[in-house]
Specification:
By secondary structure, the chain is mainly alpha-helical. It contains seven helices and two strands. A hairpin with a 2-residue loop joins β1 and β2. The longest helix is centred in the middle third of the chain and has 29 residues.
Length: 248
C-alpha cells in the first residue's frame, strides 16, 4: 500500500542547508517538547506490566518515524549518488520494517491505535529531500536524518530506563539498536555537517502540536505495512563503527 507523502504548508526548496535544517529539525519520534506533563501516569494495567502515557507515545511515534524514514530510504536507494548513500537507504528500509513489525505486533495487546501517516512535519522532511537532486539530495537527506536520529537516541534510553512494560522495553531495545545503526551508516557517507547537526540537536524550533502529531487513521482503514526486505540482506542490529584515523 503506498504511503502518503502529502505535505502541510509550503515546502522549503531553496537556500542553504543550514536554513533547511533550521526550519525543519525537530525530534522525529517522540515529540519531546510536546510530551504530556504527566507522562508517567499509568493509563492501563496489562499482563506485560503497567502502560504509561510516555509508553503509549513511544509506540505511536516509533511507528510514525517509520512512515517517513522508510520511503526516504527507498529514495536514497534509487537516487543516492554514492554506494554509501545507497547503503544508508537499505539500512533505513530494513530497520524501520523491523520496528514497524514489532509496533504492529504489540499495539493490539496494549490497545494502542497506530497511525497510517507520518506527522505533517515528517511528511515535509520527505518532500524537502524529494525536491533536491544529485549531491544536494544526498547532503540534505543525510543531515536531516542525522539531526533527528541524534535527538531521539537519548530519548529511547530514557524510555528503556523508565518503562515497566515488557513489550515497550523490547521495542526500546530494538529501537536503540536500529537508531545506532542508522547513525553509523549516515556518518559513513561522509556528508554529516557535525557543527550544524550538533547545534540543531540542542536548539530545535518550537512547532505547533498539530505539526508533530500523526493524523488519526480513518475508521476501519487497514493498517499500512512497511514491507520487509530480506532480499537486501542487511543487519541493523550490530553496527560497525566508522574506522578512526590511524594514530602514528
Amino acid at each position: 500500500m503506498p504511503i502518503s507523502r502529502n505535505t502541510i504548508g509550503t515546502v522549503f526548496v531553496g537556500g542553504a542547508l543550514v536554513l533547511t535544517l533550521s526550519a525543519l529539525a525537530y525530534p522525529s519520534m517522540l515529540g519531546i517538547q510536546n510530551a504530556s506533563t504527566n507522562a508517567s501516569r499509568i493509563i492501563a494495567n496489562t499482563q506485560w506490566g503497567p502502560l504509561t502515557e510516555a509508553d503509549r507515545d513511544f509506540v505511536v511515534k516509533v511507528r510514525s518515524a517509520g512512515l517517513w524514514e522508510y520511503p526516504l530510504g527507498e529514495m536514497a536507494m534509487q537516487r543516492g549518488t554514492t554506494k554509501e548513500m545507497k547503503e544508508a537507504g537499505e539500512h533505513l528500509i530494513v530497520g524501520h520494517a523491523g520496528l514497524d513489525a514489532m509496533c504492529r505486533k504489540i499495539a493490539p495487546g496494549l490497545n494502542i491505535t497506530l497511525p497510517n501517516q507520518a506527522t505533517p512535519q515528517q511528511q515535509q522532511f520527505v518532500a524537502t529531500v524529494d525536491s533536491k537532486s544529485g549531491q544536494e539530495f544526498d547532503s540534505t537527506a543525510v543531515n536531516i536524518m542525522r539531526v533527528t536520529h541524534g535527538q531521539i537516541f537519548p530519548a529511547i534510553a530514557k524510555i528503556r530506563a523508565s518503562t515497566q512494560n515488557t513489550l515497550v522495553r523490547q521495542l526500546a531495545d530494538l529501537a536503540n539498536d536500529t537508531v545506532l545503526d542508522h547513525i553509523t551508516v549516515l556518518e559513513k557517507t561522509g556528508l554529516v555537517n557535525y557543527d550544524q547537526v550538533n547545534f540543531q540537536q540542542t536548539t530545535p524550533p518550537k512547532l505547533p502540536k498539530d505539526q508533530l502529531t500523526p493524523p488519526a487513521p480513518q475508521p476501519g482503514a487497514p493498517v499500512v505495512v512497511l514491507t520487509p526486505r530480506p532480499d537486501l540482506n542487511v543487519n541493523t542490529g550490530s553496527p560497525t563503527p566508522t574506522p578512526s584515523p590511524t594514530v602514528r
